[in-house]
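Record 1 of the preview.
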Amino acid sequence: MKRQLLFVQGGGARVHDEWDGKLVESLTRELGPSYEVRYPRMPNEDDPSYAAWRPTLQKEFASLNDGAIVVGHSIGGTILINVLAEHPTERELGAIFLIAAPFVGEGGWQPDDWQPQREIGRKIPDGVPIYVYHGLADDTAPPSHADLYAHSIPQAHLCRLPGRDHQLNNDLREIAEVIKALAAPA
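->
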C-alpha cells in the first residue's frame, strides 16, 4: 500500500496550476512510486480564507489513512496548521510539514477573517513530527516567520534554506529525504 501525502497549495491567482504544481512535481519525483501524493484544488485560490478552506481540508483529512503526511505551502500551510490545532483530525498523522508559511498572529501577519490559534504546539497531538521549512531569500513571507512558528510550536524542527525563495526554487528534495527517512524501518 502506498503511503499517502496531502499537499495543500498556497493562495493566489492560478497558484494551483502555475506555481505549486511545480512543488508537487518535485516532491512526487523525489518520493517515487511508493507515495500517493494528493493535491486538491482549494476553493477561491485567488482569495484564500480560513473559512472557505477549512471544510475542504477537513474533508481531505477524513479520506486519509493513519500515518499520512500533510504538507502545506505558504498560506496553505498557515491554514493547515491552524485547522489541525482547532479541529484535530481523527487520523493519526505521520508528520506535518510547513513550507514558507506566513505566521498569522502576534509578530506576524494580522488575520482578516479568523482568529489564529495560540500555542499551536500544545494543540497538535503528541508524537506528530512537525517540520518548518523556509527559504532565506523568501520575499513573500519573511524568513522571520519561521522563528515565530518555532516559538509557537517548540517541538518543530526548523530548517532555514539559504538562497531559496518562497517556492524553495521549486526543489523539495530535502523535504522528500526527511519524509522517506520517517517511513524507513527503525
